[in-house]
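pls ignore typos typing on phone
iron/sulfur cluster + seq
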Amino acid sequence: MKVSFPHMGNAYIPLSALLTNLGAEVLVPPRPTSRTVDMGALHAPEFVCLPFKVNLGDNLRALQMGADTLAMVSGMWACRFGYYGRVQHQILRDAGFEFDSILLGRDGLLPVYKKFQSTAGGNLLRAWVHALRAFKRKAEAMDALETSARQRRPYERDKGASSRALDEGLAMVHRAGSLREIDAARGEALALVRDVEVESGMDEPLRVAVVGEIYAVLEPSLNFDIERRLGEMGIISHPVMSVYKWLFRPLKIDTSILLAERRARRIARPYIAYVLGGEEHQTITGTINAARKGYDGVIHLYPFTCMPENICRTILPRLESEYGIPVLNLCLDEHASPTGMATRLEAFSDLMKQRRGKRATA
Ligand code: SF4
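k done
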């Protein structure tokens, strides 16, 4: 079985561990580029949201690389994401590709569990237990490394050093096989990031919360690597979501994620009374929390035609004035450019510095 799946940040690291330990060969498509988007856009409905086109492009590239099985989460989201897997796979079959589907979601876990009966070899239950442990260990290592690099970047002496250490560290974790090797790779990788030289005597960096649609927040190729950009501009970013949470939320085994989710829905309720199916409650609550914690600003990222986040877009101006925090709205589509993003981030950084200066003298 040659399995592939679309990108979502560094999720390919734990997902590859999971599938490899179940006996599958994993084909990771190249990081999405404008070519990926063009390939997806060619076959996608014109007004579907941008992540659909990027995912479809990833799947096309995976099939061209020789994948015979495509995996995708699929479920009951009120927004379009719940239909991504089914619709994308149908489009690809209509385009003449032949492959098997693994759709995690509505049909329950049993069909997915059994799918690996022939590849796992030996005891299927034992193979799943080991695969899930490797998956969890790698997801935790990935999350710890991403957090560490995010905190280091604004202080680094050599611009880009933290990102280079992060890339090297992630590659070490990705290569690790056994649980013991994963733990060792995590330790070594964290040391690499910790050893990045930092400037001393710096002013306290600006702090921004990054909220919005999950794929726009977490996929660097879609948001022009905003986390790295902000860090290298001397700004600490706090994304309200992470790939780790995205992977573990549906599994319902980490109670802290579930409790935070419930709390976010409660705080957002005065502004959004309904579940829209995306990350709307995290966008609203993330903005309110950023103001309460004294952050300097909020960046709202969302794809063009994203239903839940366009609704949030109309609510955020009210939060800006009620809570006294500036919000930068960045809408992403096929025509967004890195230069446009850089210009707007620089202007927003100047605005936040001015506000901080005014507050200090008030
Ligand atoms: S949250 Fe927005 S971008 Fe994501 S699938 Fe739903 S409508 Fe599309």
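The first strand starts at residue 2 and ends at 4. The pocket of iron/sulfur cluster is lined by residues 49, 51, 79-81, 213, 278, 303, 306-309 (CB under 6 Å). more later
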